[in-house]
Batch of 3 targets.
Target 1
Amino acid sequence: MKKEIKIGLLGLGNIGTGTYKALELNRAHIEETLGAALQIKHILEKDVTRDRGIAIDPALFTQDPATIFDDPTIDVVIELLGGIEPATSFMVSAMKAGKHVVTANKAALAANLELLTNTAAENDVKLRYEASVGGGIPLIGAITESLNANVFSELLGILNGTTNYILSKMSDEGRAYDEVLKEAQEKGFAEADPTADVEGHDVANKLSILMSLVFGKRVLPDDIPTTGISAITKDDIAEADSQGCVIKLLASAYRTPDGQIECFVQPTWLNKTHPLAGVRNEFNALFLKGNAVDDLMFYGKGAGPFPTASAVLGDVIAIARG
Ligand code: HSE
């Protein structure tokens, strides 16, 4: 293994900053575990003056992505820009330049999964995206590695931290939608444009990725019937509560008896005894049914800078080991 793994970081927003901080926090542990040092050599970021609560050498910042792609010493590019473009093009350029890529970008993956995975294969580099679905929950590694022996019949999940936070706070504390959305944004759960969260598009992106991995079925996010939570009122929540239920934004995909895969994203009443009813705040959960493993449930923080950084850095470490 190389003694030093050099990283180019694309984006120093909430998740980029969290990743930088988590690396600093756990650097000694990570480097001892890995037997190699991790160095962030360049950061592509326009906003170099924002107070992020960390001291970053200004010389690390660049506004030109070619600084990273053309640097032969960079081993891994971490893409944390969000959005489909220019993130997709940047990841393709990085892989064509022989760099491994780690991304948390569910929108880019859901839109361009074939392009990105084919580019990785053609250039003999790794593309890892554990952070793209379920934040810190190690879902993708489990589905693509440990659970490979299964044929799956069903997946059901709470896959958006922002909307689950809003619904939980409205339900548990009787608070207003707008106030709680603002709080979720401040905590770094929400997308840059929270419309993607509250209208269910973020969940549709994640469900699209999961369906490719779980069922081998490619469905573009726009083809997933999707309803968000923006129309849910305090009265809706009170009515559900009076019937012993909570409202959760669920992602669902399942195999029908004739072998078709059906899917949807929609707010759903769940009895309070349902295992997903107790998943609160920014926590996510995914239920899977496989024909060998049977029922399986994953639970953990699905949004936020540090949980997401956990998955991002885990991918970097996996690549560095490989
Ligand atoms: N905005 C997303 C969420 C971030 O709230 O779940 C994690 O993908």
Target 2
Amino acid sequence: MQEDNYRHKGMRKILVEELKNKGISDENVLNAINAVPRHVFLDSSFLNFAYQDKAFPIGSGQTISQPFTVAFQSSLLEIKKNMKVLEIGTGSGYQACVLAEMGAKVFSIERQRKLYTKTKAFLAEFPYRIKMFLGDGNKGLPTYGPFDRILITAAAPEIPQALVDQLKVGGMMVIPLCENEEHQTMLRLTKQEDGTLKREEYGDFRFVPMLKGVGED
Ligand code: SAH
């Protein structure tokens, strides 16, 4: 793994300040962004991009989410220590590490085989509690649920019923739901006693699409 030196740490501090200025206030989230070295998720020649508040391509047509988006979704989840969190769309593994740094037990599904294999080997170098799975996130992980929290990091055309079924009562799902081709509305859904979902809306975002089945890339 690439080193994490004082220069990288300094760049992260500046990023954390930028996120605070953009409205992120959850200390647990800010501490996690400060702790996880985002640059090691990118090729070393892209160091100057690693701590800009921008999404970045990671191969296989996928992106590592923008730090603000990672921080925003992580804040909405209101993570407490030892919660079981299911992430759909492992991608680079960065978001999974942020959740694990916040104390979550993370289960993460990626549908692209090559990306899954690469990220799984890479995440093994971290001390975090993250279990990775190759599969279609629309189906969730019935044998590992129910989950306290579910996070979807791709643009979902609909709310997958299997994921609602795998959410605990009182549990929350954060999902960018497609309103049209370009934009998604960030939703936080809380499962009520009677199984229905309380819905809260948090503005427009842009993600790569949530697809069905497993792909080879
Ligand atoms: N959380 C990632 C960013 C994800 S980009 C990070 O921190 O880097 C979205 C990811 O979702 C992509 O890797 C894409 O392949 C994956 N994806 C899309 N549809 C999926 C599905 N149905 N199941 C699992 N993963 C999916």
Target 3
Amino acid sequence: MIAPVQEHYYAAPPRIERGWRHHLFDTDGRAYLDMVNNVAGVGHSHPAVTEAVTRQLQLLNTNSRFNYEAMVAYSERLAELLPESLDTVFLVSTGSEALDLALRIATTATGAEHVAVVRSAYHGWTTATDAISTSIADNPNALTTRPPWVHLVDSPNTYRGSHRGEDAAQRYADDVGRALAEVHASDGSVAAFVAEALYGNAGGVELPDGYLSAAYAKVRDAGGLCIADEVQVGYARTGDHFWAFEDHGVVPDIVCVAKAAGNGVALGAVVTRSELADRFARQGSFFSSVGGSPVSCAAGLAVLDVIRDEDLQRNARVVGGRLRDQLRALAAKHELIGAVHGKGLYLGVELVRDRGSLEPATAECAAICERMLELGVVVQPTGDYLNVLKVKPPLCLTASSADFFVETLDHCLTTGW
Ligand code: PMP
């Protein structure tokens, strides 16, 4: 009865009924190293999250129009983690909701309707977030079917994008300028520019230095707002900072959060400046029944405690750095690995048939993921050509499990798939 279009991993998926830290267990008792689960950011079945949620469920779980402590406490904690200007929190349940609401805030606050988005991106499944999703892996017709208010800008990918040299950041930022000029030339006005600060869907590709600040400046000059989608790459994952945008020294106007925020309990947020929230209020009230419910906020608070108490940001930096170094060493041994992207515990291992032409090794990537499952590792393809192994495990990944992943990939690439 499940809609066939509903995605699932693997041709013959194992039945997974348990998870613990960065491992999953199937009903035959097999353990798998989970290298993809950035939703379970602090690890599967974390006792602190279980306890907080259980306790809250026993007390109260209701819609967010009531007055209870967890919502205030979580909103305060979240805002404290963000730059001072981002002081107003909206609570929702998912990433799609967060991006959808961010678009509504931007269009209402600016009175404009046009939105610039980078290619190869995914921002959600609702009508508006689907409209700004440009990944041709998710939707092969994405580039030709965007509505007129969506303007595509070049994917700032210095590995396989249109600019790869030293001036790439400026050239990609110029392309943002070109898209904004197009809007003005057609008598439109710009509401927002939406981007991830580490290019998740493209395969964990790092943005060239200076790109985001130059792009943000152009968008603001054009009267638009800058929306950072931190749904995948935020929450301590990149290691140096809590938020990926901090790596680029920029302050967005609107930040969207979800996935890891609740460690699998539905929780998302939009954080913005109070003056933008006030302008949004002119279009009526806002309410999402279980967005910010007592249980989801209790989960959200427990997750933030665990990230702090277990020093998971540092773990992302240290174990992620070790993993990246080892994967890069593996690239010297196996021609198929064209590049290792990303930072912290958001990495991408890009597979190519030819390092000159960069022909994507799509079929190989799919087969390698199936073989890795047999060898006890869950890893999945991503990127426009589904030729990048996405590496975004729970933040509690240990050094020995990182080594196991590299050894298993080495074994797979050496003995075949
Ligand atoms: N933004 C990004 C960058 C995402 O990766 C996703 C989900 N993959 C979303 C938004 C949408 O989040 P959700 O699936 O929670 O609606």
